[in-house]
Write a structure and sequence with these properties.
The chain is built from 13 helices and no strands. With 362 residues, it is mainly α. The radius of gyration is 29 Å and the shape is flat. The protein has two domains: 94 residues, no CATH class; 220 residues, MetI-like (MetI-like fold). Belongs to the binding-protein-dependent transport system permease family. CysTW subfamily. Keywords: Cell membrane, Membrane, Phosphate transport, Transmembrane, Transmembrane helix, Transport.
């Protein structure tokens, strides 16, 4: 009696029942396209006047989470579907976090570009201008001078305080400094402006004092705690072995800090300083209180009122003249200028960190 053996095809359980490799990005793109089509139909029907890009990205990402879970559930099983769902939720959180930033930048560029590209925006002030024309040169100069002086005040104080807390500080004094730095980090910006105004009003016995140096002091009050905390955390990341190796070679502590600790943590310190500058360069309330506003040029930080870009944006929007659109265009152009300045500062910070950070051999 003979038996017939039937060959059974072999299946690889490790590769069977899997979605294609690029299914995630494809499903996300299809979800965005489907949502865009829905919004386009709504717009064509007359229910909406403009195409909603932010809504398309948001609801398309939500649709992607649902679609990728269902596809994976029917093809790969419940375990892999849960894994893909969590990955999709992380992607959705990333997209949703970017939406306000993209929307803000796009709106600022679109609304501010017409006035930003005018030939007089960076070559003239608003002196004797009550309608179209004029520029923001006085505000740009004021912002650079006040923020630059605030940086010169804040960085040495903040960095030396961080070195003390990390390398020398022990006991109650160090704990007290840390406590007050944490408290200062959360104070409202207008409190810093009121502090500077009260300080110089008492010193000069002038209740109406307004000048750029006072604005720099107000901004430095806001910058110092940020510089201290960021620099302190970067200094703590330097391995103790590097310090001990320097001490073993007979290098004094101050020289170890100068030649070993600071160069090792330079990239992080510069990044923290740039973050602190970005934190204060757009402040309006303290500068409005102590620096005031003016339509004329002023290069003297110690005399008379000085205009800054945040106050320029505020005054252009709040005190609109007969030609409303001209004032709004200048306000948006001032906001665009602020964004560009912050972008340039961050690019410089990355370049400085790359050039001066220690080069480690392999």
């Amino acid at each position: 009696m003979s038996t017939t053996t039937v060959a059974v095809p072999l299946t690889n359980s490790l590769t069977a029942g899997k979605l294609p490799r690029h299914s995630g990005p494809v499903v996300l793109l299809v979800s965005w396209l489907v949502t865009a089509a829905v919004f386009l139909i709504v717009q064509l029907s007359g229910a909406s006047t403009s195409f909603n890009v932010a809504g398309t990205l948001f609801f398309g990402t939500v649709l992607y989470c649902i679609a990728i879970y269902l596809l994976s559930f029917f093809v790969e099983g419940v375990r892999k579907a849960k894994d893909r769902l969590v990955t999709a939720l992380v992607t959705a959180a990333f997209v949703i976090a970017l939406l306000p930033l993209i929307s803000l930048v796009a709106t600022t560029v679109i609304s501010g570009l017409p006035a930003f590209l005018t030939p007089t925006f960076f070559t003239s002030s608003q002196r004797n201008v009550v309608g179209p024309g004029g520029g923001a040169l006085h505000a740009v100069i004021g912002t650079l001078l006040i923020t630059g002086l605030a940086t010169l005040i804040s960085v040495p104080i903040g960095l030396l305080s961080a070195i003390y807390l990390t390398e020398y500080g022990r006991g109650r004094l160090a704990r007290a400094i840390t406590f007050f730095v944490d408290v200062m980090t959360g104070i409202p910006s207008i409190v810093a402006g009121l502090f500077a105004f009260a300080l110089f009003s008492l010193l000069f016995n002038d209740p109406g004092i307004r000048f750029g140096f006072g604005g720099a002091i107000a901004l430095s009050v806001l910058m110092i705690p940020v510089v201290v905390r960021s620099s302190e955390e970067m200094l703590k990341l330097v391995p103790n072995e590097l310090r001990e190796a320097a001490y073993a070679l007979g290098v004094p502590k101050w020289l170890t800090i100068l030649k070993v600790v600071l160069p090792t943590s330079l990239a992080g310190i510069v990044t923290g300083i740039m973050i602190s500058i970005s934190r204060v360069i757009g402040e309006t309330a303290p500068l409005l209180i102590i620096s005031g506003f003016t339509a004329s040029m002023n290069y003297d930080l110690f005399n008379e009122r000085m205009m800054t870009l945040p106050v320029f944006v505020y005054t252009q929007y709040a005190n609109q003249g007969t030609d409303t659109q001209a004032y709004l265009d200048r306000a948006w152009a001032g906001a665009l200028t602020l964004i560009l300045i912050v972008m340039v500062l961050n690019a410089l910070a990355r370049l400085i960190a790359k050039l001066f950070s220690p080069k480690l051999g392999r």
